[in-house]
Every structure is written in structure tokens, then in C-alpha cells.
Amino acid sequence: MCPTRSEHPAAPPLPLDGAARRLLDALPLRAALMDRTRRVVYANRALTGFAGLPRRGYRGWTEQQLVGDALWRQSRHLAAAALAGRPARWEGRVPSRRHGPRHVVRHYVPARARGGRILGYWIFVLDVTDRVETERRADATERLRAAIVDGALDCVIAIDEEGLVREWNPAAEATFGIARASMIGKPLGDVIVPERHRQAHASGFARYLAGGAPRILGRRVEIEALRANGEEFPCELAVSEVRLASGRIFVASLRDLTSVRAAEAELARQRASLVQAERMSAMGSLLAGVAHELNNPLSIVIGQAAMLAEATEGSPHAARAAKVQDAADRCARIVRTFLAMARQKPPRREPVSAEAIARAAIELLAYGLRSDGIEVTLDADPATPSLSADQDQLHQVLANLLTNAQAALRGRDGPRRIAVTVCPEGADVRIAVSDNGPGVAAAIAERVFEPFFTTKPVGQGTGIGLAVCRSIAIAHGGGIALESPPEGGARFVLRLPGSPLAVAEPEAQPQPARLRGRVLVVDDEPGIAEVVCDILRTDGWETAVAHDGNAAIATLAAERFDAVLSDVRMPGQDGIAVFHWIAAHRPGLAGRVVLMSGDVMGSAPLALPEAARLVEKPFEPAELRRVMASLT
Ligand code: ADP
After folding, report:
1. Residue 289: is its pLDDT beyond 70?
2. H, E, C per residue of 580-611
């Protein structure tokens, strides 16, 4: 309710003339003049307009009536200060029924008479709501921007038209190794652009600022950048332009591609390695296939060589025959090694000699090593315990190590040497393969056992050799390590647990078979049948030959035999069918069937009858005699 004028005493005269009123009415600032009793003497247009008051009806109102209870209570001390001669200021949010909450700055200023006596006080209200709101919004926007920029995984870098850094986020700090504080205000080009590109960068930037067409704006480009440590790295860059009143800002989002490039290179290498590994495996199969094809002719050569050696014993031709026999035996061992490597059979554990394995591996590679002018020595301590191991797998390990050493030595001038040593080490067996090649650089020493790690050019290395060696060593309860001997070169050391079981001594040359009588030799290869018959006849057997399974069954049905020696794979009825016929129709003979198998590469695995004995081609006469001698 507006109080009536008669309820209040007249206000004392205050220093306010018409000109001052007009000036105050023209101001956007809200202003009121209060007397010493805190009653309104004058309120300017801005105030009455804001409060919705009539232009004159407020005169004589108290401050409390003018501003409302809450604000009045809040500003009592301000009025008291002004009346005591001290200007006072207050800033804060105030409620307004008409306008909602407002943010205001209130000044209370003493109103003095000419002589300085305080007659009342001025209230000036500056409404800063819009400015505060704008600032608050700007602050929220800034915090959001900071969160986005600071949390970005990519580098966010902004520069101004002078090329000086205005923004440098934490990702940029980490990528370039330069703190934000030392980058802000620095010329970007002088820091992150590699020296050789700086000129082009500067002229490109200047050309664009002078109105040239943009070359990189709005596009993804790949460039080289420079870290604080001088390392150059590939990165992907997208630059956008922001036009501000103060000038243009260029914002770059930059992504370090180092790890992406490394992953791509690794992937490409692995792909190439896989292709190579497939090629190698195809070559391995081919090689094993060739070895398999050599089986039969080699059996003939070996058998005939042995027969020749026996026949020429004591004659001037004996030495020649012995040489032929040695060479034939060596061929047989090589073929057997290839076949052993090609076979996919579960690992066996049997007592084996590390020295014998090393010797066989050296022998396998002897020709290539000799052709490369490499001298190989084997030094085996006779006190070395035997191993409980899969002979074929260990053979593969040794062959891999020798092949690697051979490859490492190829580029070397001067003497090329590989030394293989076998010795006990506590309860273990230590097999070391050393070469005097370039050795393995310390930086890659840790990696050589990783699958697909190779330093050889595509087409030459697969990177699987040492990985296979390691998995075989571990499967045997041992390990393999690379050592760098002080004298240079590389040394791969295989350590395997020794076995208490002794290696079986090769059986002494068997006595001619006790069981004698008629033996049926079945083989579709006449040369094999012939040499087998020759060997058996020297042992006192009477022989008959059948050249396929059907003929064998017909012969067995018609005649009596004491033993059967049959090839496994034959056209028509194979050796296994012959065995089953015997088991069904001549059960007494089933225990005296020997199957000759050269088939390790056949597509279908052989289901050999357990009761049959087996001789693997290419066999030496001694082996054949041993098996025949075991028949009872
Ligand atoms: P690959 O021989 O196919 O490369 P490996 O796994 O056998 O695969 O060998 C991996 C790498 O180890 C080789 O590329 C080579 O860099 C290194 N290496 C192996 N043996 C030797 C050695 N005797 N001397 C020097 N480096 C070797």
C-alpha cells in the first residue's frame, strides 16, 4: 500500500535541482536520494520504471517500502555507513518480483549540503545481470572447451596469424615432449616442423595469409613432425580456421602415426612371413615327397652295395665296394632324416644320445656347409648323459641352428667356422652351436626367438626356425639361449635335462636267422624283391616272389611258407590286405609277417596291423636280418 503524503513529515531540503534530476532521469542507472530518516526524496526514471512505481507517488516512502523487506534488511548497514559519511558498496543477487532474480551492484553514497553536513544518502543501483550471465555462460563454455581439448587423445594445437602457439593440449605435451607453458607464444614452425621443411611451411603460411588458396585447410594430410628429442615421426593433420574479431586462429588436430605405421609394418611382415612359411612348408612336403620317391631305388642301392661288399670281401674290389656301401648308407640316413622331419607324429620320449643327434644333423647339412667353405667341428664329452627325447625333433633343432649359422657366415670373408659342443652341465646336457659370423646385435637379441622375427629379406627368412627350436626345447623340459661370446659370433645353447636311462647300444650284427625255410617276398618293385631275396638267401632262406597282393594271396593259398615279407603299398590288394588274408586263412603264419613300409607321405595314414613287424624303407641289410632273426 502506498502511504499518503499526509502521513509523513516533509523531507528536508536536499541538494537536488531540476538540472540534476533531468540528468539522473536520463541515466540507465537506478538512483534514489534518501533523507536522514531513510525516506525517499527522489527516485529516477530508471528506478521507478524498474519498480513499476508512479513517477511521484513514492515520495516519503521509507527505503524498506521502496526496496522490500529482504533487501532492506540486507542493506541497512550500507545506509548506516553512508549516513556516517562512508560510501558503501554491495554486490549480489537480489530477488525481484517483476523481473526475477537480478545481479546488482549497490552504491550508498552520503548526500551532503554545501557545507558538508550529511543530509541523507544516494542509492545507485547498477544492474549487471546480463553481464554476469554472459560471463557465466562464457565460463561454462570455456570449461567445456578445456575439458574437450585437454581430454583429447590427439594433439590440439592452435596458432594465430603470426604463427604463434595459442593452444597446446596435454596430448601435444606428451607427443612432442614439450610443456604447454614453454610453447604458448612460441612460433610453432620453429619447434615442430623439421628443419628441411621450415622454409616451405613458412612460405605456404604466408602465401595463404596473403590470400592464396588453402592447401591443407579442411583436408587430412600426412606430414613429418619433430619431437623435442630430435626424433621425426609421421603424423596425420587436419587444420581448420576460426575467424575472431582479433584475427584468424588456425586449429590443428594432429595424430601421431608412429604406432599405426609400426603395426602396419608388423602386419605386412607377418603376412609376408606367413606366405613364406606356407611356401616353406610346401617345399618341405616336396622335399619329403622326393625323399619318399628315393626310398625304393635307395633300398636297392643299399642292399646291392651290402651284397657287393660281402661278395668282394678279401678281394682287390673290397675297398671300392665298401666306399659304395658307405655312400649308400649315408644317402639312406639323409633320406630318413628328411622323412623324420616331414612326419607329423606325436613326440616320443626315448633314450637318445645328444652327440649322435648333433652328428646326424651335421651330416645332413654337410654338403651345403662344405660348399660354403664352412669348417664344422663336433666336440662331445663322453661323460654327457643321454637324453629322454624325441630324436626327430631334436634333430630338427640342431639342423635349424646349423642352417642359421651357415646363413650368418655366408657374408663373411676369411675362415668360416661352426663349432658344436656337447657336454654335461650338472644333471643337464648342454649342446652349443657357435659360429664366427657377425653375431646378433644386442638390440634384437631378445627378439630372435619370437615367431616370425627375422632380419632376412623377404623370401629368405621366415622367422619361425628359432621359435620352433624354443618350443621343442621347452617341451623337453629344457630351454635355449643366445649367448654373445667375447670373441664374437653367435652361440646358441640348448640345455636339456639328462636321462638316467642309457642309450641302447646298436645291436651286434645278428647271426643268420635261426628260423629258416620258405619266405614269400611280395613287392611290386622287382629290384627290391630281387635284392631282398639275395640278402635272405645268403642267410639260408629259400625265397619265392610275388609282384602284387593278388599274386601273393594266390601263392599263399597254393603253397606252404614259413615267413612272408611284403611291401605295404601295392596296386590292387596291398600288404595290409595280404596280412589280413593270412590272419584269416593261415593264422599260424600271421606272427611271421614282416611289412616293408616306405610310406610316410601317403594321404591316408597307414593302419598297420599290430601283430605285423615293420621295416622302414630305405633299410640296410643288417636291419632286415635283425627283423628276420626275431621271427620264431
Ligand atoms: P629366420 O632364419 O627365418 O630369419 P629364425 O627364427 O631362425 O628365422 O632366426 C631369426 C633371426 O635370428 C634371424 O633372422 C637372424 O637375424 C637371427 N639369427 C639366428 N641365428 C643367427 C646366427 N647364428 N648369427 C646371427 N644372427 C642369427
Report:
1. yes
2. HHHHHHCHHHHHHEEEEECCCCCCCCCCCCCC
Give the ligand 1 atom nearest the CA of 433.
Answer: 23
Residue 6 CA from chain centroid, whole number: 95
The pLDDT of residue 460 is 67
CA distance 594 to 519: 10
Testing ligand 1's pocket by substitution, the residue of 397, 403, 454, 494 carrying the most ligand atoms inside 8 A of its CB is 454
Q: How many residues does the chain have?
A: 632
Instruction: Provide the 3-class DSSP secondary structure of residue 249.
Output: strand
Degrees (nearest 5) of the Cα angle 549, 553, 558?
150
User: Mean pLDDT throughout 88-113?
Assistant: 90
Q: Counting beta carbons within 10 angstroms of the beta carbon of residue 372, is it exposed (0 to 12), middle (13 to 18) or buried (19 or more)?
A: middle
What separation, in Å, do the N-terminal and C-terminal C-alpha atoms of the chain show?
Answer: 136
Whose Cα sits closest to atom 16 in ligand 1?
Answer: 455
Distance (Å, whole) CA 46 – CA 478: 96
pLDDT at position 200 over 50? yes
Q: Global pTM? A: 0.43
Please give the number of the atom of ligand 1 that sits closest to the Cα of 460. 3
SS3 304: helix
Mean pLDDT of the chain: 86
- The domains found in the chain, sorted by start residue, are 5-127 (3.30.450.20), 135-256 (3.30.450.20), 346-499 (3.30.565.10), 518-629 (3.40.50.2300)
The 10 Å CB-count burial string (b at 16+, else e) for 547-575 is bbbebbbebbeeeebbbbbbbbebeebbb
- Centre of ligand 1 to C-alpha 191, Å, is 41
The set of protein residues with a Cβ atom below 6 angstroms from ligand 1 is: 400, 404-405, 408, 435, 437, 439-440, 448, 453-456, 461-467, 490
Which residue of 283, 409, 466 sits with most ligand 1 atoms within 8 Å of its CB, as the best mutation to test the pocket? 466
Q: What is the dihedral of CA 100, 105, 110, 113, to 10 degrees?
A: -70
Using pLDDT thresholds of 50, 70 and 90, give the confidence band for residue 14. low
Task: Name every residue whose Cβ is closer than 8 Å to that of residue 83 and which is 6 or more positions away in sequence.
Answer: 36, 110, 118, 120, 121
Cβ(342)–Cβ(601) under 8 Å? Answer: yes
Residue-wise burial string across 588-607, b where 16 or more C-beta atoms lie within 10 A, e elsewhere: ebbebbbbbbbbbbeeeebe
Atom of ligand 1 nearest to the CA of 464: 6
Which spans in 224-379 are helix H?
A: 258-311, 318-342, 354-371
Stated as kind and residue range, the H or E segment containing 155 is strand 155-160
How far apart CA 152 and CA 173 sit, in angstroms, is 12
| Number of Cβ within a 10 Å radius of residue 616 | 15
Least confident piece of the model among 174-178, 310-314, 352-356: 310-314
Query: If pLDDT is split at 50, 70 and 90, which confidence band does 226 have?
Result: very high
**% of the chain beyond a pLDDT of 70:** 89
